[in-house]
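does this look right to u?? PBG version
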Amino acid sequence: MDLTHRPRRLRQDGVRGLVSETSLEPTDFIAPVFVDATTDERVPIESMPGHERVPIDEAVARVEEVLETGVEAVMLFGIPESKDPEGTRAWVEDGVVQEATRRVTAETDAYVITDVCLCEYTTHGHCGPLEEELRGEDHEHGPACDHDPTLTVDNDAALESLARTAVSHAEAGADMVAPSSMMDGMVGAIREGLDDEGYEHVPIMSYAAKYESAFYGPFRDAADGAPSFGDRRHYQMDPANSREALQEVRLDAEEGADVMMVKPALPYLDIVSAVRREFDHPVAAYNVSGEYAMLHAAAEKGWLDLEEVARESLLSIKRAGADLILTYFAEDVASEL
Ligand code: PBG
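got this back:
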């Protein structure tokens, strides 16, 4: 055959590494860590094999395990000792994330990012206080069945709580805050709150394009944050939309976000890639709990090689344009690199 072009030439050992376009580094990853104020023992998370909720006393030890793999950043999530309709335990000085942050920043070199949301702290599990019409109802069991399902979170009332929460995390020593509630104006409110209190240097990683996804299922078990009624489709994004994601990112850029996150990752690589093309900000992608759980489930059946598919997944997220990857595979993949 008289072939001029033979792309296989560059796939041979010796040269394939030289021409490889993408690589993974442990410093690309952020490892999520769940700190639970309701327990004094580590509790395995069934739907996320290898992950646990750890008591506050174990937070430092847990973060040290992450650091040993070469991963340098963690994202702290908190499970509070008690909940109320407003989620007040989210911003108290002795809250679970605040306490864990103080200890981890004092005792380790980890870069500590905190998730700023209210769903783990409210009795009804929504990401902010409810609309006035719904207040005072039985939040554990949800509002009356004839309630208007478009009514959930009171956006503007949530902003103040989110700003207070972010400030309390910064006071505890958080290196970066990551608002995930998808309230309109959340980045601006948090930026203003931080700046007013002298935390101008604390960056915001916004969950800018966060979709209303069924891939969050295992996380909601892990963090005990499932809504007790309704769903999050009136604040998280519709999976059908992509131009809207660019609009969300644009608004967050105007409000002062430093890093733009797309979430979930694998089913939304087109969004990661579009944000990468349209904006100059660092792009983060959240390889969520369901993406982790499904690979584990298939591997457990012997249908997939876990190590291979985990690495290939993270590589594809990087190739699509993510600079940072939040992933439950952080430690496993980093230790193999
Ligand atoms: C809180 C929050 C969620 C996740 C991260 N922050 C859950 C949700 O919005 O329901 C999901 C993370 C995961 O699935 O791994 N708002």
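Residues 22-336 form a domain with the TIM Barrel fold (CATH 3.20.20.70). idk if thats expected tbh
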